[in-house]
# Entry
Amino acid sequence: MTGVIQGTMAVVAVLCVVANVFIVAADLSRAEFVLANSAEVGLRPAALPYLATLKGAGAVGLVAGFAGLPLLGLAAAVGLVAFYVGAVVAHIRTRVFHNISFPLVFLVLAAGAVSHFALVLS
# Structure
C-alpha cells in the first residue's frame, strides 16, 4: 500500500509542476482570464511577472526534487503551499468565491507535492 501512496503522490507532484508551468505561461502572456481574476481580487497587472516568478521558481524546485534534490523539492512545495494559501486568502478577503476553486486546486496539488517529498525523505 505504501508504494501505491508514494506513486500517487509522485503523480500529484508532477501534476503540480505541469499546472504551475501552465499558469506561469498564462501570467506572463497576460491571458484574459488571469487579468480578469487578478482584477477581481484587487491585484494590479504589474504584479503578475513577480507572482509568475515565484510560481516558476516553485516548479523548478519541484523538478530539482525529482532530479535528486528532494530537500529542495520539499522546500519548493512548501513555498507553493504558502503562495496558494495567500491566493485563497485573497479570494476570501475580497469575497470572490465564484472562482476560488482555481487557487484551491493549485493548493491541493502543492500539498500533494509536500506529501510526496516528505515521503521520499522519510
